Amino acid sequence: MAHFKWNDNYNIGFKLIDDQHKILISIINDLYDAQRHGLLQSTISETLDKLSDYTVYHFSYEKELFAQHAYPKAAEHLEEHDYFVDKVKDLQLELSKGSIVLSLKTMDFLKDWTITHILGSDKEFGEFVKQRELGLE
Ligand SMILES: [Fe+2]
User: 89 CA to middle of ligand 1, Å?
Assistant: First the structure.
């Protein structure tokens, strides 16, 4: 069962970004499953590594787009990305020490941050580009 369902409301108007967000959500779902089914620590670690690698890749793609569009709110948006990347790195570290299992609270954090970020900052960027293309900005 998916814990984090894609909702068309998450579309920000860039097909490639929307597709990347879908992949991000599916990795978070894999983590939920690994956690819920009490899968091996190694499986959870691998999935967390996948999440870490993919967020770095995805965020650098967004960063390039901000540059292409001379996005004025790029700096604060990128700070949000850094915050998330750091959180995921902390989790990787803790997990590698065997000191934690991913709690439901942690899973909810990953999910809630992602939804809030897509619906807030990412949509704002999508709107900015749209307005510009319409010559309103
Ligand atoms: Fe973003």
Answer: 17
Ranges of residues in the chain with a pLDDT under 50 are 1
Report the distance separating Cα 121 and Cα 125, nearest Å. 6
59-71 pLDDT tens trace? 999 999 999 999 9
User: Domains plus CATH for the chain?
Assistant: 11-133 (1.20.120.50)
Ligand 1 centroid–CA 83 distance in Å is 11
Q: How distant, in Å, are the alpha carbons of 4, 8, 73, 83 from that of 124? A: 22, 16, 9, 18
User: What is the pTM assigned to this prediction?
Assistant: 0.91
